[in-house]
Amino acid sequence: STDSLGVAPILTKLQKDCATPLPVLRHVADAMADDMRAGLAVDGGSDLKMILSYVDTLPTGNEKGLFYALDLGGTNFRVLRVQLGGKEERVVATEFEQVSIPQELMFATSEELFDFIASALGKFAQKEGGNFELQQGRTREIGFTFSFPVKQTSIRTGILIKWTKGFAVSGTAGKDVVACLNEAMERRGMDMQVSALVNDTVGTLAGARYWDDDAMVAVILGTGTNACYVERVDAIPKLAKRMSKSPITIVNTEWGAFSNGLPLTEFDREMDAESINPGEQIFEKTISGMYLGEIVRRVLVKMAKVGGLFGSSYVPEKLVTPFVLRTPDICAMQQDTSRDLEAVESVLCDVAGVKSDLSARKTVVDICDTIAKRGGRLAGAGIVGILQKMEEDSKGLIFGKRTVVAMDGGLYEHYPQYRGYLQEAVTELLGSEISKNVVIEHSKDGSGIGAALLAAANSKYE
Ligand code: ADP
Fold first, then answer.
1. Which pTM was predicted?
2. Atom 23 of ligand 1: nearest residue by CA position
3. What is the DSSP letter of 50?
4. Nearest CA owner, ligand 1 atom 8
5. In a mutational test of the pocket of ligand 1, which residue from 98, 164, 223 has the highest number of ligand atoms less than 8 Å from its CB?
6. Where are the domains of the chain?
7. What pLDDT was estimated at residue 445?
8. pLDDT score, position 446
9. pLDDT of residue 4
10. How far apart are CA 121 and CA 111, in angstroms?
11. Domain 1-50+212-444 CATH class label
12. Which of 165, 318, 436, 444 is catalytic?
């Protein structure tokens, strides 16, 4: 049975180290706003890159015609077409397909990878029919969501900085990924062209704005995290010359790199030190789906070793492997309302290969809650930081009217407690009056259609 005397002090210390009372949240929100300003002042001025997206026209709802989207962000890519019918008819029809990228192409040449993508896109386009119709004399336009680091220089150009997420494609770094795809499509004689190169958060904002004129911010909480928002061009000192007549532009914050004033524990520090990018992406490591389960696992290992969680200093062998406990597992354990915590028992048995008594299971749920609570509340403080920055530069334009924050990503979508903590922190920070005007809502598949909408909004025919 559990040596509860050993477990309690570790849990208490964890809860203390993870605490996010209002002053901590306020500090994080203020620091986020300050870091945003510093990043807008000069390149490299802050942890936040504050990347200009070159998207300065968001969808209005009036878009008409057939548009395509291509989403490349991992080992799968998605292709989609949408027929837009304008203000009244809106989305007349949409179809999509998911294609997995063969392992060997992740290590191939740039031409081989883009030829494969172009070919899949071409096959998909050939199945067009029914409700889909291209306007006479036009080529098919594509919104291309590319979730790897690129240095964008226009809405249709982006130089690849490096491949990540296991890709090691040769001959693409330093090249324009839009040109790579356009050339591959030309080689196949395809009648398609990229009209907009889009970051996934920007796609989410575009998708949300299409349905709701008050959408101003988009946040992704999935494996990783990021946020973008509508900024006024004259609030961006580092934007030397104005290329466009639009008074606004979308800024991609890359907020995962934020690190100022976060309540961190020994478990966070050890996880960071052993990660492939120590010292980087600290906000992401505290709030996003890739890491929450791993932080809980590290706490469990210590509690097993020092606190006798699973019987005196017994550390289950399986539990020692990094990342065996995933965020969906801790989410599942938190949904367990049974008296004996049977679901908790079954996760611990599957993942850690361990038998647990009821008091150990309760402790495990408390740990999950502590880590999810800190993550959700800090994400909420980050959102308030963005809204605060927007409000300070435009007195009354944010808090004085309805403002929508569009949310997407598996963590936000599937983890109700996390969502609740996020909302709670936003309400605490803004107060009940102002928070009535701030609507935080899930934008389902915003980014998929969003990229096609940005191709429409940036069509070369308009
Ligand atoms: P990605 O961010 O990888 O592009 P998603 O937005 O679908 O894709 O997010 C997937 C992530 O969401 C997973 O890595 C996981 O961390 C988190 N997630 C998925 N399902 C759940 C769940 N049931 N509970 C909590 N988190 C989940």
1. 0.95
2. 328
3. -
4. 222
5. 223
6. 1-50+212-444, 54-198
7. 66
8. 58
9. 47
10. 15
11. alpha beta
12. 165
